[in-house]
Amino acid sequence: MKWLRLSAYLAGIGCSLLAAWWLFPGKTTEAGVTAPPSQKWIPSLSETEEFCRFDHPEWRRAQTIEGVEIAADPECRPDNPYLIAAVVKGTNRVTMPTLMKTRLAMDAVVKENDRDGDGDPDVIHIRLEVGELNGSTPDGDFLIPGYRIAPGLTPGLWVFVPKMRGMATVDAVNLDAAPLLRAPSPPIRVEQGDTVYLTLENTHYLPHTIHLHGVDHPYRQADGQGNDGVPITSEKPLLPGERRTYIIRPRRAGTMLYHCHVQTDKHMLMGLQGLFIVEENRPDNWLQTFNVGGGKVRHPSRAVREKYAQEYDLHYQSLDKERYRPIQEYNDPRLVAKGMNRDYDITDNEEDFFLLNGRAFPYTLRDSLIVVEPEQKILLRVVNGHPHTLALHLHGHKATAIAADGVPLAQPVTRDVHALAPAQRLDLVLDTHDDGLHSFGQGIWLMHDHAEKSVTSDGVGPGGDIGLVVYRQYLGDDGIPKLQGMDLTPFFNLGMFQRQIPLWARSDAWEIFSDTGPLPPDTLRVILSGISLGLALGLTWACWRRWRQPS
Amino acid sequence: MIRPVLLILFLWLPVAAFPGHRMDMDSMVMNENPTRLPQGCAGIAGDRTITVRAGRKYAKPFPGVVFAYDQRSWEVPPCTRLTVRFINEDHIRHQFMVHGLPPDLYPMGMFTIEVSGPGEETASFILPPYKKTYLVHCDIAQHTEHGMKAQLKVAGGDGDLASLPGLTKPVRPDRYPTRWTGRSLLLLALALVTGAALVWLGRWLIRAMTEDQP
């Protein structure tokens, strides 16, 4: 009898607890007729960068340095004109004071021997190193050398770099990467028929090579050394501390590519890829051998100047968090190699960051603007470094593709979305004649990959590879476009792409889109669950008393 | 007459603009200082020459290290004029870069020798009088992090730097997979027996204290 009573008590307690649990208000509550009011929360924007802070505004104007004419570049952060003078004349020919303003090594670009007597050098020695950006260090929880693609975003990258001298960082205190050490791997320009000695000095801790994709080059050199940069066919990978020289004499002009051919699904997509442009042969044709950071070419070749008012290099590429994770997690190269080569699986992963000329929006507005005047023809050399198709879309214009992969198109194609397969290059002509087809008139026009994930940074948008075509009258003297859209201040906050700042935090609509306040729990549920819990406690107490009484 | 003067001016100007700095295709020296005394030094206490070799092969004794110097720690007395013969045995750039020197004599507190490829360069600098450990490293991207790091102690130094291959631990060491060995399993078994014995000992003591005395 005692056991029967006990069973009944326990069943009652169980049912009551079950009911209390079921009726108890959950983590969310359904609103009644009126939704809860907005939270009176103003996001802190204290850690916000200025749109354009730049110490050398004088670099923007047109100038001549050591006889090298350098076109104006009125955007916020133009290229260092001394660097341009040094790579046009050659680091062996430029004076020491100019070279000292560049951080280039003296043998980074050696130009000599005007073989054909046409006034320009025909034997060019180019030296590249391999640099890691935002890698780990055994000396603490920070990344070095630091490189931000956008405020607060420091993905791991590898880049080919013109051979440098001195520190990899800005200085001994500022651990950000030196200006030369940046993405993308620099566009390289050589002249058709030049003998080019391209030396890779492997300053990195993993093996690399250079493959001259689409550039006329022999498979082997005269001494039998491989010249194609492919570890499974032509040569062994170049180990840390070693160097190798690739020798070419390209017969055809065009927009080509160079990239590391070691584990291309990792190394090339980590950033070891750059434009390689063979310019048409002309007399007195001194080329800007490196266009560090891509973007405007401030000293275009003779052939380009004959046909176009301006020339820009546009390098699109993307990064996968899982791919670069090992270089930020480990110091030991064995762990990095295993993490990349055996643990990482590109078929299981998606790209997270999308770059135009090494930066993501809003930094693209600082140094990757295309600044135009009306009635110009502008040459855009575009490369798709993504592992997916690039759908390049220009607002307000229909650009004309005149060449693909360095080969002129028999029939030029005018459209507003140009598709580029991975590794493909297109030569596009941007025509700013306001004729309703090529241009719709002056303004600030967006330019981006229309594969929409590409306009985000780790899924936060707008970000990614958004760039702008800005007509000159819409650009301030300080290099800031005269925008009339939303306030971009939150995009320069370090928390924006960490999802800490609401997108419309500074818009007029903030009151509408602010975070919501809480709702009180549903009254009926509170009452019923309370009664059920009380029943369970009462039954427990009674059961305990009964159990202790002698039968 | 004017041409030789102009030529001398042309050659002299870069030197005047960048004192202590020299550079050619193969190497670069920044902030060389064989004569000017740091504050607190009455004179040069002595001359010392070290030969420092840099290259991948010096990393081989240390697993997980890629680039290294052949030595990773030096000690010199205060006010020593130190001459560094820096030999690069790789086909890429390496540096011998010292930080923390007095900025009035050494801009940014640095003294640097950089050798562009296989080869060597020699330069001197004078160390201050106080007890201090100076960071020596190669600042090419990730070379320090992968082993090319050393320390220079003056008057015994004020401690050791972290992450010196074979000498000191990293601040943030990597983690590796665990694998049990026979020795570690034996240690575990011993620890278990010891723990059980301690419990038995405790119970025995309590019983001994609470039992009625005859």
Structural notes for this entry:
The complex is a heterodimer of chains A (551) and B (214). Chain A has 551 residues and is α+β, with helices and mostly antiparallel strands. Chain A is 17% helix and 23% strand. Among the domains of chain A are: 2-36 and 518-548, no CATH class; 57-356, Sandwich (Immunoglobulin-like), CATH 2.60.40. Chain A is built from 9 helices and 23 strands. In chain A, the strands form 5 sheets. In chain A, strands 12, 13, 14, 16, 18, 19 and 21 form a 7-stranded mixed sheet that branches. In chain A, strands 3, 4, 5, 7 and 9 form a 5-stranded mixed sheet that branches. In chain A, helix 5 packs antiparallel against helix 6. The longest helix of chain A has 26 residues, at 523-548. Chain A starts with a helix and ends with a helix. Chain B is of the alpha+beta class and 214 residues long. Chain B has a 7-stranded mixed sheet, with no helix packed on it. In chain B, strands 4-3-6-9 form a 4-stranded mixed sheet, with no helix packed on it. In chain B, strand 1 (22-23) and strand 2 (27-30) form a beta hairpin. At the A-B interface, strand 4 and helix 6 of A face helix 1 of B.
Query: How much helix, percentage-wise, in residues of chain A?
Result: 10-25%
- Fraction of residues in H or I helices of chain B: 10-25%
The average pLDDT score of chain B comes to 88
Major sheet of chain B? 7 strands, mixed
**Poorly predicted parts of chain A:** none
CATH architectural type of the domain at 57-356 in chain A: Sandwich
End-to-end span of chain B in angstroms?
125 Å
- Shape by Cα distribution of chain A: elongated
CATH architecture of the largest domain in chain B: Sandwich
Based on helices, strands and strand pairing, what is the structural class of chain A? Answer: alpha+beta
Output the radius of gyration of chain B.
Answer: 28 Å
With helices defined by DSSP (H or I, 4 residues minimum), what is the helix count of chain A? 9
CATH hierarchy, class of the largest domain in chain B: Mainly Beta
Distance between the termini of chain A: 9 Å
Using DSSP, what is the number of strands of chain B?
11
Q: How many beta-strand elements of chain A?
A: 23
As for the number of domains of chain B, it is 2
